[in-house]
């Protein structure tokens, strides 16, 4: 009876409770932390996609497309000023990409292309040369190429069929890196690890694991940062040192938390969630109204009129078969799920129960509603 919520709950159990030990699973430092300074850089650019089969911007409704088209043609020696351009084969687009850490000049990047105006589709279009800028306004890459679109749109006189999002696409290896981001990696006497999920206990465990490999090299500065002193023998080979550190395994800690997505009815419960002694009863009041109108037909030659007589059936169900469940203090996640399953609740009811337990102060965990 617990449709999508219990399915999501069961998936959560499969992840956090294999034989009651999944919460203690070890992870590589590489998977829970990253080296500070080694990060992507966001790039953005404005360009034109040409070659569209009448699905581009309407120049009357998208003046920026017309201005861009005229400026591009002028740079190529074609004067179109004071002319009435009516082409629908051009679309103004925003081009985005991520410059990976240590991206070298001449390497290639994937780019995403999205329309700005009222273009219907980018299918079959080609992006013209588009500079990609960083946050500092400098050009770091140049993009150009055939746009690959996964969706489509077919329109007739009375209906329209759309699959996916035809107004955005992707160009694999569509940009060439022109400028490198300067970063003097490996020259510092110390480096820092940034935890993806900040936690005091996890930071301490990471520092202990590193100190077990290199005595006295690491210390936790805060819940998200671990500082590591580079040993003298690795000063000229920092990559080998980081490789050894990344492969060390630790057991990440986490707060007891329940995450609820009310839009989809999804519930995820962490392994450390505990509930104090509490009794739970839940009953639904369901009102069903059924309309079955009947036609009253008069006898022949009686002079009467055919009328529709309403017939309404109202049924009320108070959910009297629902039971009361008592949860003892400190029950585990498995006990909590079993108890909630015993109530025979639907997804929305289960969410209401968890919120009520939290309001009663019996839920020893964070309740996060998305």
Architecture blueprint of SSEs:
Layout: H1 3-16, E1 27-28, H2 29-32, E2 33-35, E3 41-50, H3 63-75, E4 90-99, E5 108-115, E6 126-133, E7 139-146, E8 152-155, E9 160-163, E10 168-177, E11 190-195, H4 200-213, E12 218-222, E13 225-229, H5 238-246, E14 249-250, E15 257-261, E16 266-269, E17 274-275, E18 278-281, E19 286-291, E20 294-296, E21 307-309, E22 312-317, E23 324-327, H6 333-342, H7 347-359, E24 363-364, E25 366-369
Parallel strand pairs: 15-25
Antiparallel strand pairs: 1-14, 2-11, 3-4, 3-6, 4-5, 5-10, 6-7, 7-10, 8-9, 11-13, 12-13, 15-16, 17-24, 18-23, 19-22, 20-21
Describe it:
- Belongs to the FlgI family.
- Helix content is 21%, strand content 35%.
- By secondary structure, the protein is an alpha+beta fold.
- The chain has a 6-stranded antiparallel barrel. Strands 2-11-13-12 form a 4-stranded antiparallel β-sheet. A 3-stranded mixed β-sheet has the order 16-15-25.
- The longest helix has 14 residues, at 3-16.
Summarize the model shown.
The chain has 370 residues and is of the alpha+beta class.
């Amino acid at each position: 009876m617990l449709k999508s919520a219990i399915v999501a709950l069961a998936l959560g159990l499969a992840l956090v409770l294999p034989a009651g030990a999944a919460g203690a699973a070890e992870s590589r430092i590489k998977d829970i932390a990253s080296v500070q300074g080694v990060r992507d850089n966001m790039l953005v650019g404005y360009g034109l996609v040409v070659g569209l089969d009448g699905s581009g911007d309407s120049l009357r409704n998208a003046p920026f497309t017309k201005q861009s088209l005229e400026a591009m043609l002028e740079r190529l020696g074609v004067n179109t000023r004071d002319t009435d351009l009516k082409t629908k084969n051009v679309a103004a687009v925003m081009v985005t990409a991520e410059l990976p850490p240590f991206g070298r000049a001449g390497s290639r990047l994937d780019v995403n292309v999205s329309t700005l105006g009222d273009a219907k589709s980018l299918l079959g279009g080609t992006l013209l040369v588009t500079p990609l800028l960083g946050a500092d306004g400098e050009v770091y890459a140049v993009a150009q190429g055939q746009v690959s679109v996964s969706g489509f749109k077919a329109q007739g006189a009375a209906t329209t069929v759309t699959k996916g999002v035809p107004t955005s696409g992707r160009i694999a290896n569509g940009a060439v890196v022109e400028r490198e981001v300067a970063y003097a990696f490996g020259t510092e006497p110390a480096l820092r690890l940034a935890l993806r999920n900040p936690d005091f206990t996890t930071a301490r465990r990471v520092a202990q694991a590193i100190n077990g490999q290199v005595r006295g090299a690491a210390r936790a500065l805060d819940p998200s940062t671990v500082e590591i002193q580079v040993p003298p023998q690795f000063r000229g080979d920092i990559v080998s040192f980081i490789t050894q550190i990344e492969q060390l395994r630790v057991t990440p800690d986490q707060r007891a938390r329940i995450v609820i997505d009310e839009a989809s009815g999804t519930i995820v419960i962490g392994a450390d969630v505990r509930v104090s002694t509490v009794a739970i009863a839940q009953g639904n009041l369901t009102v069903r109204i059924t309309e079955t109108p009947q036609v009253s037909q008069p006898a022949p030659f009686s002079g009467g009129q055919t009328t529709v007589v309403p017939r309404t059936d109202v049924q009320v169900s108070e959910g009297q078969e629902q039971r009361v469940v008592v949860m003892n203090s400190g029950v585990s996640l498995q006990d909590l799920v079993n108890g909630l399953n015993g109530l025979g609740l639907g997804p929305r009811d289960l969410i209401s129960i968890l919120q009520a337990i939290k309001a009663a102060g019996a839920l020893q965990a964070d309740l996060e509603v998305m």
